[in-house]
Specification:
The complex is a heterodimer of chains A (331) and B (261). Chain A has 331 residues and is mainly α. Chain A has helices spanning 2-15, 27-48, 58-77, 85-104, 116-161, 163-176, 185-191, 195-220, 224-232, 237-274, 280-289, 293-321. Chain A is flat and about 75 Å long. The chains are: A mainly alpha (331), B alpha/beta (261).
């Protein structure tokens, strides 16, 4: 194969062949050198092998695969392609296999299974509406998750610090908290005049409950000696809450924030599918109604990208705020 | 603050007829029984007694973290009703805040009072010899270093009374010896009044100018011993052995077989 040729040729140039001989198989070298060519191979299949049906955007797909392949080859030559090389290789090859199976040989039932060019076509022709939907989803999410989380932290701290708050709020939490917020959706749509506000309120509830519980648990677990140390130096309640209880409970609060974010995603999609007339959930519902499966897949892809990006942002925030911890889970 | 030119006058302490008890599931349990005590400004008083006899409770009362059931506590003639930065307590565990660096932990007192005093923080770090670790996180410190940070965190408040609740209790013996010397040196140079609970008779005799022996719970004062031996104090000094034997004898008379059960 031509890949093997490139691999042998370049491994000499990169490593200088200090002690190892060129004939021995080196997996790291292989991944780095083969990632780009894998994409080129997929581009070649896409371009030269005739489509089984009249699919849109085949040439654009080939161009995209070609460009990615060239970029990967350049990165490998510059020594910038390291840990991600195996993934880049598998992705390139995987796209080629998908292209071959569906666009060239039609092995899977249509229209439920689209082709790569179908998907690309959606992004090329409908990117405005997708972007708009993404924007509205983010807006809705922010309007529910952020106030819900802040409220959850406040309630959690109050639960952890005050006997009175515990007495009155705990029973309410126990009744409403474990209920899936989705179950309240029909009620919320009736009680709250705007579907948008109803969705946001339920998202706030979905995020607020785990955040409040975990914050409470974190604040309750604070070593009482931490308070004594500050009190003996003259600290008042404000300092004890904001500068002792809150930082000490931060690891737990973040567990709540992660759980709340997941619950908010679920609530977001349901709200958009059932009442709110915008956003990615609405787009998916609409696409499915018109049997526009590639559009549905595209929206799903964008949604997954949105969720993973927001999770990553939250992880980065946590890593920054909890850099004092010995170790933590890496996302 | 820490620097000696701005030193605060040491505190005089007057405790009279203190009674205190804790509520437990099996009823009220007395821990202090009519404890009276006068501490002169600048004294270093060590409290010795069996475990759980109520010495730590006494320290918490003096710090103002708790109020006694009966009796009065006076600091320079003024009743103690709440904690005050002039009376700083240091615990057996360093209880450093893990989310603050060494420097951040030491500047806790100034932070609480909204003061910015980087020079004082630096001076306090230097006083306990941790210049190289000022940016370290608490989990990166050894037990001895962590306790030195706790000491610096206490001293930056220029306490007029330093309350020490077995501060060296959990350290290994080598670190302990080094910290004893350090504590003594700092007490000498800063001139505060010190009140220290310890289980180590030798430690009490090396550091304190006065040793109080407590009975088992509820705590009463069994003996009040002035430690009158010259400095520098060395472990090998025969006077230490005499005093040590005397105190152990007092402790044993206090612990009858009945009270142990």
């Amino acid at each position: 194969m031509s890949n093997a040729q490139t691999m042998l040729g370049n491994s000499n140039a990169l490593e200088g062949g200090a002690e190892t001989t060129n004939t021995r198989f080196k997996p790291k070298q292989f991944w780095r050198q083969a990632a780009g060519p894998a994409w080129l191979l997929s581009a070649l299949i896409t371009w030269k092998w005739p489509d089984a049906d009249d699919f849109p955007a085949t040439n654009q797909l080939a161009a995209f695969l070609l460009a990615t392949g060239l970029v990967l080859i350049a990165l490998a030559a510059a020594g910038r392609l390291k840990d991600r090389a195996p993934w880049a290789f598998v992705l390139g090859l995987g796209l080629g296999v998908w292209e071959l199976m569906q666009a060239k040989l039609l092995l899977l039932p249509r229209p439920f299974f689209g082709t790569p060019q179908d998907l690309l076509d959606v992004f090329l022709t409908d990117w405005k509406r997708l972007g708009n939907s993404l924007f509205h989803s983010l807006l809705l999410l922010a309007g529910g998750y952020l106030p819900g989380s802040i409220l959850g932290i406040i309630i959690g701290v109050a639960l952890g610090r005050s006997q009175h708050v515990r007495y009155w709020v705990r029973p309410v939490m126990r009744v409403i908290g474990p209920l899936p917020p989705v179950a309240l959706l029909p009620l919320a749509f009736v009680v709250i005049p705007s579907a948008r506000w109803a969705g946001e309120a339920l998202m706030a509830l979905a995020a607020g409950f785990p955040v409040a519980i975990l914050t409470w648990s974190g604040v309750s677990a604070v070593d009482p000696a931490y308070y004594d140390v500050a009190r003996t130096m003259g600290a008042k309640n404000r300092f004890l809450v904001l500068r002792v209880a809150l930082p000490a409970a931060t690891p737990q609060i973040f567990v709540g924030l992660f759980m709340g974010l997941g619950a908010s995603f679920a609530m977001l999609v349901v709200a958009e599918m059932l009442g709110v007339k915008s956003g990615l959930g609405f787009y998916m519902q609409w696409a499915q109604g018109w049997a526009a499966y590639p559009n549905m897949y595209a929206a799903l892809f964008v949604m997954s990208l949105m969720c993973t990006t927001l999770m990553t942002v939250l992880f980065k925030l946590r890593d920054h705020l909890l850099k004092w911890q010995k170790d933590g889970l890496k996302w | 603050m820490v620097n000696s030119t701005q030193r605060e006058a040491p505190l005089a302490l007057t405790l009279s007829h203190l009674h205190h008890s804790y509520d437990t599931p099996s009823g009220s349990r007395p821990v202090l029984d009519d404890v009276s005590l006068d501490v002169e400004p600048g004294e270093f008083v060590a409290l010795i007694g069996p475990s759980g006899c109520g010495k730590s409770t006494l320290l918490r009362l003096v710090a103002g973290l708790e109020t006694p059931d009966a009796g009065t506590l006076l600091a320079d003639g003024t009743p103690i009703t709440e904690p005050h930065p002039s009376r700083i307590i240091m615990f057996q565990d360093p209880t450093l805040y893990p989310w603050r660096t060494v420097r951040g932990n030491i500047s806790l007192g100034p932070d609480i009072h909204g003061e910015k005093n980087p020079e004082a923080v630096t001076a306090a770090i230097r006083l306990v010899g941790l210049e190289e670790f000022s940016r370290a996180w608490p989990h990166q410190l050894s037990g001895g270093m962590a306790q030195r940070v706790a000491l610096a965190r206490a001293l930056i408040n220029s306490p007029r009374l330093l309350i020490l609740d077995e501060p060296l209790g959990k350290l290994d013996s080598l670190t302990r010896f080094a910290m004893q010397t350090e504590l003594f040196r700092i007490w000498k140079s800063q001139g505060f009044t010190a009140l220290m609970v310890t289980h180590d008779v030798e430690e009490a005799l090396l550091l304190a100018s006065r040793v109080l022996v407590f009975s088992p719970r509820p705590a009463r004062i069994l003996a009040d011993i002035h430690v009158d031996w010259p400095e520098p104090r060395h472990r090998e000094n025969p006077r230490l052995q005499e005093l040590r034997a005397h105190i152990l004898e007092q402790l044993e008379t206090g612990i009858s077989p009945l009270s142990l059960a």
